[in-house]
Amino acid sequence: MLVTAYLSFVGLLASCLGLELSRCRARPPGRACSNPSFLQFQLDFYQVYFLALAADWLQAPYLYKLYQHYHFLEGQIAILYVCGLASTVLFGLVASSLVDWLGRKKSCVLFSLTYSLCCITKLSQDYFVLLVGRALGGLSTALLFSAFEAWYIHEHVERHDFPAEWIPATFARAAFWNHVLAVAAGVAAEAVASWMGLGPVAPYVAAIPLLALAGALALRNWGENYDRQRAFSKTCAGGLRCLLSDRRVLLLGVIQALFESVIFIFVFLWTPVLDPHGAPLGIVFSSFMAASLLGSSLYRIATSKRYHLQPMHLLSLAVLIVVFSLFMLTFSTSPGQENPVESFIAFLLIELACGLYFPSMSFLRRKVIPETEQAGVLNWFRVPLHLLACLGLLVLHDSDRKTGTRNMFSICSAVMVTTLLAVAGLFTVVRHDAELRVPSPTGEPYAPEL
Fold first, then answer.
1. Within the chain, which residue ranges are assigned CATH 1.20.1250.20?
2. What is the pTM of this model?
3. Which function does this protein serve (predicted)?
4. Which end of the chain offers a freer environment for a tag, N or C, measured as fewer CB atoms within 10 Å?
């Protein structure tokens, strides 16, 4: 398993590097890249944002292993994960309103503080302290995915008056480097936890200086901005009306809730499946992120001038790949007949599918959901998504360890088959909808926002 993980990591990394170098050579320089003021503004944003992302990814590979190291049972660990998911959905519902009221810059600094406290709680073996840490992690995650983007968009348009057409380029580049940081974070976590022998708590300690630096740079280099608050009840009511009045939006919500709830359960299960067989967890995580990056690169190639496939087709392919992978996992995790290499390959296929799924879903959401109602609609998407994931983890909590994992993959397979039916329903509704097609490229390859 050790050799397989390292060889897979090197192979995936080489594939990603080859695809990205080929794409960069074929792409002519854009207008935004030649503007010094814009480049400096981007740099000020990226310095803080990338540090925050790196600190977030650094904590991912060894979370389950840390709780196991503290001798908690799988059921207790499942409850910790449920607490994290529940706090994410609760804080996610009010994050936009909180950020608008408090100020985007202050919210980013608050993220640095709360996430640092979350990391500090990992030093304790007290179960209640760890539960508090999971709640702080949920708040921090909600701030990470709301405050930073909101600050950038306001500064880009209102303060600097740059063209709005340049915004997708910034976030597409951020999405690419987010994958790169995730790959690097897995290697760094493996280095401090395993190679240096510091144990599974080491990545959390290493994340604290990154968070402190991110907060300090935001305080020094960023200006404050606010936005007019929209009542939370009105936001949700508008989102619900949009959800119920447009069948396309409803089907997208069903697909997102089902697909991403399965991914949350996968995030919980991969460590107990592979760790008993001596898998280097940091390298395995980096391989997952490299597979996801490969999927994103394949998405950009597939929707480019040369192939011109549509996001709806790639969304269907992503769901099919996950269905196949979950069926593989139901056999490779059979008690007494475990096949860790086959499970690892299935996990890599799931991550590859995620690389196809997320840009496809992002494109379809932007086209289907009105911009003014996106926050409200996404709130309604988010609630069933996390509820399904929490339910799955609670079911696993009450299962026998030897059969529970295999049964959970069987349940996830059934959920993904349902997702496939929802995708087929959406495809039937939108197959003649020109709005949901990538425009025919006339120049450089199409590079959608990730």
1. 38-226, 230-439
2. 0.89
3. Mediates high-affinity intracellular uptake of the rare oligo-element molybdenum.
4. N
